[in-house]
Amino acid sequence: MSDLATPNVIRRADYAPPAFLIDTVALEFDLAPERTIVKSTLRVRRNPAAAHASHLELMGEQLEFVGASLDGQPLANVRAHEHGLTVENVPDAFELTLTGACNPAANTTLSGLYVSSGNFFTQCEAEGFRRITWFLDRPDVMATYTVTLRADKAAYPVLLSNGNLVDTGDLPDGRHFARWEDPFRKPSYLFALVAGKLVALEERITTGSGREKLLQVWVEPHDLDKTRHAMDSLIHAIHWDEKRFGLELDLDRFMIVAVSDFNMGAMENKGLNIFNTKYVLANPETATDTDFANIEAVVGHEYFHNWTGNRVTCRDWFQLSLKEGLTVFRDQEFSADMSGGDQDEAARATKRIEDVRVLRQMQFAEDAGPMAHPVRPESYVEINNFYTMTVYEKGSEVVRMYQTLFGRDGFRKGMDLYFARHDGQAVTCDDFRHALADANGRDLAQFERWYSQAGTPRVSVTTSYDEAQRRYVVTVAQGYGDASPAARETQKGPLLIPFAIGLIGPDGADLPLRLEGEADAHGTTRVLEVTGALQTFTFVDVPVKPLPSLLRNFSAPVIVEYDYSNDELAFLLAHDSDPFNRWEAGQRLATRELLTLATRAAEGRPLELDDAVVDAFRRVLTDETLSPSFRELALMLPSETYLAEQMAESDPAAVHAARQFVRRRLAHALKADWLAVYERHVTPGEYEATPVAAGHRALKNLALSYLAELDDPADAVRLATAQYDAANNMTDRSAALSALLGAAASTGGDFVQRPLQDFYERFEKEPLVIDKWFALQATQRGGAGRPVIDTVRALMAHPAFNLKNPNRARSLVFSFCGANPAQFHAADGSGYAFWAEQVLALDALNPQVAARLARMLELWRRFTPKLREQMHAALKQVAAGVKSRDVREIVEKALA
Ligand code: TRP
Ligand code: ZN
Fold it and tell me: What range(s) does the Peptidase M1 alanyl aminopeptidase Ig-like fold domain occupy (predicted)?
């Protein structure tokens, strides 16, 4: 059997409907940490829409077979094996009962049924249900579930599963039971159970149709004081989905449960969402503004899955973006509406900028490497490796483009038709596209390429102005540039690109737009539909030579190439009416300067920065008409990771030198302004988690971080120490500590030791805060002769470190390898040796998490020769020792 178990490729083209269907599932659990008994009774019948099969093949993993019966008769012709169980020569319809056992306490993979802090939890997406019992564990097999949980009452007083609680009672020997019924058909990946010592914050609300609903947020007792924000976020999400999409909560009860051992962010199990504690628990003392915002987004995301994912689910895992891209789009819109409402364009732009920054830094990088894949992949070895930035974030951009093309109302019509057609079904990305097309009377055949082509499109623009004719011609060419081989083989033809454009006059005001052939001008932003490889658009009646504002609000996930001068970028930064493009102009300006400086640094030449660039930044910093959150985003330089990826050969040390040079230059040149901004944006009084207050804190703390770059950081040390001691919230306290770590890196000052120690002692009982303590140290800048790898290795031996807990592993190991590029890519290869060790250690414990860490070297071919060689050696070392299919897929693709 083991030869057959080596990675085999699953292909989208091979999809076939299941030979059997399962209509009802009755599960009985006798919960015990080392040996849980699961009895499963299935109503099975042949699928009329599939080819005949005489044997029933069920999936199962890591299960001990106990017994089986068919229609009440003990079964002889059943064979349990490493990958499942075969029942030979079955009738057309029958009842199958299977009993098995598993060991939740020994399950470090956090997939299937496992124990965390003494409580039981499940995680079934994508293929975890087969680790609980034998099943047709694929999303196109939908059934109704009845679940009976039995456990010791003292140790596990709370017993939860999907749907409605229909019965509870006591059993002999101090045990008790609870029975749950989920009235909605669902795929097995949405099954969940939770059992243990938990308490809940409860609310009752009435939804649109007048029905009362019970909402619960379940946590360990000491965390009850950190549940209010998650509950508020849930209530907001429920109301928002009714208002924006006409979608109502369909169950009488909706539960969120927090667990501290969790592979990802959260999981949308029907009526019983299970969350990483990081995306539930918050109060001002323990959580930052970013944490508050993330909780709102993730609570919304999982709730929105109830319709986009659960009521309408995926036919197969290649369609993952059907639910994930759409649900990310919905959570982004939710957060934007919550921060600014429909009206506040600047507040909506802040959210848009943050989302695009993630897309460009993470998804564009994925698209440029060996894991490049289309939004709807063609093949995979391990599906867990395809919960990616492409499926989620690019998938969300693809959904957003429908809304850009059809407007909010047209998009809503498409969504309505999608649910009218497909409620209760398992469908494909094509079904979604057809609903949008049909509801808007459009043929979207070309748009399909957004689902099938990998790589980041490049749109090159040239313009010409004819003064005599008052015509302005915009020429647009699309292509993919030098895409990675993985991406290139998927690229078949031009895309339909909604390309939003505005034209700005010399006074900084938008010009009215009239395209050739139009009777008169209307609007100041136009969404051009680019469909060809090369196309021209002619604006007429253009009184003066304009400056183009391209791809407004980032209307498509592409790279725009246009030859702006530095003066033009400074002009756009000062005047563009599109707030996204104002920010974008600043980023282009900074990126260009930083890349020039990085090249100089690599060649050992002296660094200098044009005063004009400093002035452009000064204007943003001191422009009190701009919102603080916008200014903070505009003044934050592009990340080192992003910059290194833009180089012909990535050189993290050179990028770090360049970026630090610019930060120090801006710190010195604008010192008085930073100090003034710091004073002006303090938020005295009680902490408020509002976007406005968060914007003030963000700008103030950015000022502090720049002040910490000064050669004499005495001001920063004084301000940061005072801020640390006086802080009534985690945003200010952690920012102060971070500034002190920054100042200490350049000066070697010992002022950081006391607050660092204080932070640990103060929050020793708050694991999520201790995660921050590890992460702050892992991402700190290195001082001369004090490489951060030494600190990281010392922290690995700290009693609070635990590789088995994914949040803790991420806080130290992932933070260092993924968010401290200059130190991780140290010339001596010490970072890579550490990476290889940790990938292999995690591989034996938790393959899903190990595979995420393994991906951190996948762009190795793009680095300078010396680094490339050492990365290659580390990858080979991992390839030689890897056990899991998850990590093997990653390193084999990287080395191919
Ligand atoms: N479906 C989940 C979401 O996006 C994410 C998810 C997929 C997940 N696989 C998982 C979460 C495994 C935890 C563990 O909302
Ligand atoms: Zn999701």
Answer: 455-563
